[in-house]
Amino acid sequence: MKIESLHKLFALVAAAGIMSVGPVAQAEDESPLGEQMDEMSGALKSLRRLKRDPERWTKSAAAIAKGAQACIKVMSMVPKEIADLPAGPAKAKALADSRRLMGLTLAGFAELELAFLAEDEEKVETALDKLKELKGEGHDKYNKDE
After folding, report:
1. How many domains does the chain have?
2. pTM value surpassing 0.85
């Protein structure tokens, strides 16, 4: 593996460690939203542990599939920052944008899973980069505490 890809992977895992991937704000640690966001983050963190595993590609794909399932659950939840907005056009727009970002995040997880199944390191890097960008965009908008 190229050293640049290793650096990208470590950077993404470090970013995921601070918070989970996705545009939805993490609520209290015990909330269903927080639990699912932790699942998404855990799926990405597991990639680091699987790096040297002989079955890396298959196990990584399975871990990412599990993260995608958590993403699907998160899509039905409303981030606290949006829930606290007064009813009206701003709230409707924020809800629609949050769903858009979570949809793109789900697509990113699927793209990453496919890259692992294809055993294509370049596609893995590309998918990880997209997920990192989505996380940044979402957290800038809906998780200002981070």
Report:
1. 1
2. no
